[in-house]
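Worked example 2:
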Amino acid sequence: MRKAFNRRQTMAALAGWAGAMTSNSTLASSDASMAAPPAGSGSGLGAASAGAPAGATPTSAPASLAARIARLGPVVPLGGSVRFENPVVWKRLVELAGGPGARFAVMSMAAGRPDRAAGLAQRALERAGARTEWVAVAPAIKDQDLAAAVRDPQWIQMVSRSQAVFFTGGAQARIVDTLRPGGQDSPLLQAVLALQARGGLIAGTSAGAAIMSQTMFRDAPFVTSVLKGILRRGVEFEKGLGFAPDGLFIDQHFLKRGRVGRMIPLMLTTGDRLGLGVDEDSAALIHDGEVEMLAGRGALLVELHAARQRLENGALSLQGARLSLLEPGDRFNLETGRLSPSEAKLAAPVAFRAPNFDPTFEFDRYFMDILGDYAIADAMIQLVDGPKPQVRGLAHSAIPRPGDTRPDLGFEFILTRDEHTRAWAPLGTGGDPYTIERVRLDIRPVRIPQPMVRDWAEPLG
């Protein structure tokens, strides 16, 4: 556990919370080098910390503190665009909160229409058997004094008598700015932390998932801009609310919007070694040192333990990152780094190392938009069930974005299957139900001709 991040320790101390409390959590400075942790430092969050020298032993919390941390309530990030009629997600949330009759405090401060957003979430939870109340605190509520509202005993008591808190989608900056005005935890946020400390559930979708890690994207809509180095604290990223374990970065709308291209640069900046990108209409459970995929198309797990990065003519070059594709039922142990596919897949490995391997995909592919809709997942599937041990794709924006001074800069993503890579696909049809473990990812900067497209009749030179 990184010493610079003490949010989890603070929440553990809240297990015996009574009356007023204060928080002194701090965010580690990102002014240090962007270099990732040394190779061989392990795969899980229990491995050596990002800033530790090679071979260093991670500092352990006292046994009593570790036991309290283990009792912290579950965290469920939903990747956004979750169908309100999706029974798997909403019923599982109610089960995690204690079963039918569990009380949820719904927070919709991220939304532009908070009453509507809260109502939709409340109805979905109530259909699954929950009781709900709306914490009517939001920047978009007309004439509301937010500074007074986050101290109002009415809302604090509403959270205190609940077994779970659910954050709706919208803009994550609104959540953080409301609950932590001026960088200080409000009494309302302290009540949420106390709920988790006594074992309560913290869940949220889209923006409500983005706030869960120690660091979050505040406003970074252009993935290729982040790849090019446009990554400023307080603009593109800032401190999150830290409900998830230290060192685990969470993002949402992930496979649909190709957000692996923005996750990796931010992880390099903060020193986070594990990233969990939850896809749309999907949910992940984080509890007891484990990530379990609950529903949907799944998530992408990014590991930077052995990654190395350098600048090539001012542009990011990365070697040795690892990507894993998780599907519902798959589990990943945050301490050991062990991935366990769902029971149905254990007997159905993709035997790409076998001499007689017959791949599902007959031909090789080059992905011209590797950050397009689901392209990174499709490329990983092509890699493990195709004819070649390497797949490549291009990341580039043909439209210059604000602040982009290098329109000719692009990035080639190079995916490789090697001795660390495994895959399972029970249907064997080339469809979606693949679990893929530890594909190697290298990223190299490339120059894109400008203009990229020319008339065929135009002479060369």
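The first strand starts at residue 75 and ends at 78. Residues 114-127 form the longest helix (14 residues).
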